[in-house]
């Protein structure tokens, strides 16, 4: 029975005489609530649902946004729940295909896939494309978790399991939840955001330790020295924290580090 069904209240009817003793007339059932007489609404719930609306302001309000965020979590969890072991590869969206780091990220994707581990990237160009390419060509699972950006961008052509997110924080949850390790290639703010998100969650024990390999000693050493020097000396991190990441130029070693968190 639908929640807006109107039916006579048979408990009030005298079946012998056939005379209805429902002094207030029909009973309107709204879930567990009954309404009679003047309390019966002129519009039904279904009627309201199906009515066309003049204003679409609600589309841009927080309660509706919360529903969209929920939907994004549901779709993400649904798409990735059965992925199996995976490693995230982060790095610049701007790395040209001719750059040695593009080649290195491709190699990383291939080596990760060869270990039967899925590769997860942001699904964009540059390092992301290279890692997806290496994984897909090697016959592996090549995941792209894209982000809706003002200038429309497709997921790169080497993604074989992809989803595009509207919200950065939902997408970042997916990276953290579904990867057991990460390889970080040279990159800009996006890459640094992904690296520090991971390190912060590990440092604060929100997630268990995730091995992180940084590829490119020349690129990362300055940051690492500043962290282990100034940041540590000022007492803003603990002694342990710098060991959460390892820097290398050797892609095979980076893959070893990243997959070391996967129980076999
Ligand atoms: C800037 C350009 C394209 C952006 N396209 C992106 N698509 C998917 N994911 C992206 C994109 N840009 C950034 N990201 C995420 O951040 C990391 C790279 O950011 P960076 O600032 O380039 O370091 C990356 O790992 C993604 O997850 C024009 O080509």
TrEMBL record:
Lineage: superkingdom: Bacteria
Stored InterPro entries: LOG (IPR005269), LOG_fam (IPR031100), LOG_family_nucleotidases (IPR052341)
This protein's record includes keyword Metal-binding: no
UniProt xrefs under Pfam families: Lysine_decarbox
Ranges of Polar residues composition bias in the record: 9-18
E.C. number: 3.2.2.n1
Record field: catalytic activity: N(6)-(dimethylallyl)adenosine 5'-phosphate + H2O = N(6)-dimethylallyladenine + D-ribose 5-phosphate; 9-ribosyl-trans-zeatin 5'-phosphate + H2O = trans-zeatin + D-ribose 5-phosphate
Region (Disordered), start-end ranges: 1-25
Keywords, alphabetical: Cytokinin biosynthesis, Hydrolase
Similarity comment text for this entry: Belongs to the LOG family.
Descriptive protein name: Cytokinin riboside 5'-monophosphate phosphoribohydrolase
């Amino acid at each position: 029975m639908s929640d807006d069904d109107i039916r006579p209240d048979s408990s009030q009817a005298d079946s012998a005489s056939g005379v209805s003793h429902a002094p207030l007339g029909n009973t309107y059932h709204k879930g567990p609530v009954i309404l009679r007489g003047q309390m019966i609404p002129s519009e039904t719930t279904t009627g309201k649902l199906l009515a066309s609306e003049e204003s679409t302001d609600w589309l841009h309000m927080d309660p509706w946004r919360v529903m969209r965020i929920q939907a994004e979590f549901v779709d993400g969890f649904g798409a990735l729940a059965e992925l199996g072991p995976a490693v995230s590869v982060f790095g610049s969206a701007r790395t040209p295909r001719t750059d040695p780091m593009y080649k290195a990220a491709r190699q990383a994707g291939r080596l990760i896939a060869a270990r039967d581990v899925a590769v997860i990237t942001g699904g964009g160009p540059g390092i992301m494309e290279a890692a997806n390419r290496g994984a897909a060509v090697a016959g592996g699972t090549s995941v792209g978790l894209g982000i809706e950006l003002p200038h429309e961008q497709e997921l790169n052509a080497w993604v074989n399991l992809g989803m595009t997110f509207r919200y950065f924080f939902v997408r970042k949850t997916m990276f953290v939840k579904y990867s057991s390790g990460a390889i970080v290639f040279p990159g800009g703010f996006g890459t640094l955001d992904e690296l520090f998100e991971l390190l912060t969650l590990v440092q604060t024990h929100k997630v268990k330790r995730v091995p992180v390999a940084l590829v490119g000693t020349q690129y990362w050493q300055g940051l690492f020295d500043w962290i282990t020097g100034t940041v540590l000396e000022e007492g803003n991190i603990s002694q342990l924290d710098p060991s959460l990441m390892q820097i290398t130029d050797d892609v095979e070693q980076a893959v070893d580090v990243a997959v070391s968190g996967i129980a076999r």
